[in-house]
UniProtKB/TrEMBL annotation:
Main location: cytoplasm
The keyword NADP is assigned to this record: yes
NCBIfam families cross-referenced by the UniProt entry: sepiapter_red
Alphabetized InterPro entries for the sequence: Biopterin_syn/organic_redct (IPR051721), NAD(P)-bd_dom_sf (IPR036291), SDR_fam (IPR002347), Sepiapterin_red (IPR006393)
Keywords per UniProt: Cytoplasm, NADP, Oxidoreductase
GO molecular function, one term: sepiapterin reductase (NADP+) activity
Organism lineage: Eukaryota, Sar, Stramenopiles, Ochrophyta, Bacillariophyta
TM region positions: none
The name this protein goes by in its record: Sepiapterin reductase
PANTHER family membership: SEPIAPTERIN REDUCTASE (PTHR44085)
Localization terms from the record: Cytoplasm
Superkingdom of the organism of origin: Eukaryota
Gene Ontology CC terms: cytoplasm
Family according to the record: Belongs to the sepiapterin reductase family.
Gene source species: Chaetoceros tenuissimus
Length: 261
């Protein structure tokens, strides 16, 4: 029996590194990675990186799916189809969801928010879609197919600390954290983790560093981190996350940061 790991936002950045960190970790003997994002080229590159870590002794299977997770109207249909395909192809004793996809949304003063429509789009993707995927994952794999389930919400320090000019991002991450904490309280048989990866060098932090309305102190931090190479690398935080999951020592629903002991 295999372990199925579904990773959203796997076309680049932290999601890609989480996929390769699982591929490198031999504690999972039979592994299938299901990789989701919009950019098919990026997904193919992640798939190639995973395939290069596969061997005749430990063959890693992959599937890639180009899905826009902000498309709320079609989300149920596309995710249900994907989960059904996965379960038809193999039997899984354990399934994991790494709920990683995310975006910054509006960056700027809280007294000058964008239009309600722009706010709705960001909330649809970063909150509604992410929460719905975790919910449906539990219903489908834990309840209907009786597999052991891990749910990982990729969180942020922003979920628990206010950062000036990042209220949309902070409140979206806080909502995701609390939803997953509540899920953990309701479902003691699940393993639920809110993981804050630290400040990582990715496209997201590049965009942030150049965001005109970002708080000047934050802007200086991101620019300095890039110039002085003090960012945590995606592979480093991904390895820490895989170890956390495999060692299984956290309390379900906890918010664990890269920098925590
Ligand atoms: N970088 C950091 O310092 C940092 C710190 C704390 C938390 N995080 C969190 O870590 C996660 C990953 O961030 P990252 O830094 O790796 O960002 P990134 O490089 O911008 O990657 C974001 C990922 O999300 C996917 N994505 C974006 N919009 C999507 C959509 N509509 N549908 C499906 N997939 C979509 C992107 O793929 P496509 O564009 O191909 O769709 C990409 O794979 C996010 O939740 C972020 O909030 C990051």
């Amino acid at each position: 029996m295999s372990t199925l790991i579904i990773i959203t936002g796997a076309s680049k950045g932290i999601g890609r590194s989480i996929a390769t960190a699982f591929a490198k970790d031999t504690r999972i003997a039979k592994l299938k990675l299901c990789l989701i994002a919009r950019n098919l080229e990026g997904l193919k590159q992640t798939q190639q990186m995973v395939n290069s870590l596969s061997s005749s002794q430990r063959k890693i299977q992959t599937s890639i799916h180009s899905i826009d997770l902000s498309e709320i109207d079609t989300l149920h249909k596309s995710i249900e189809k994907l989960f059904k395909e996965e379960i038809q192809q193999d039997k899984f004793e354990r399934t994991m969801l790494i709920n990683n996809a995310g975006s910054l949304g509006y960056v700027g003063p809280s007294s000058d928010m964008p239009t309600p429509m722009e706010m709705t789009q960001a909330v649809n993707f970063n909150v509604t879609s992410a929460i719905w995927i975790s919910s449906y994952f539990v219903k489908f794999f834990a309840h209907q197919h009786k597999t052991k389930c891990n749910v990982v919400n990729i969180s942020s320090l922003c979920a628990i600390t206010p950062f000036k000019t990042m209220a949309m991002y902070c409140s979206g991450k806080a909502a995701r954290d609390m939803w997953h904490k509540t899920l953990a309280a309701e479902e003691p048989s699940l393993r639920v983790l809110n993981y804050a990866p630290g400040a990582i060098e990715t496209d997201m932090t590049d965009i942030l560093a150049n965001a005109k309305e970002l708080d000047p102190e934050l802007s200086a931090f991101y620019k300095r981190s890039k110039a002085k190479h003090t960012y945590i690398q995606p592979a480093t935080t991904a390895k820490k996350l895989v170890n956390l999951i495999m060692e299984d020592k956290y309390a379900s629903g906890d918010h664990v940061d890269f920098w925590d002991e």
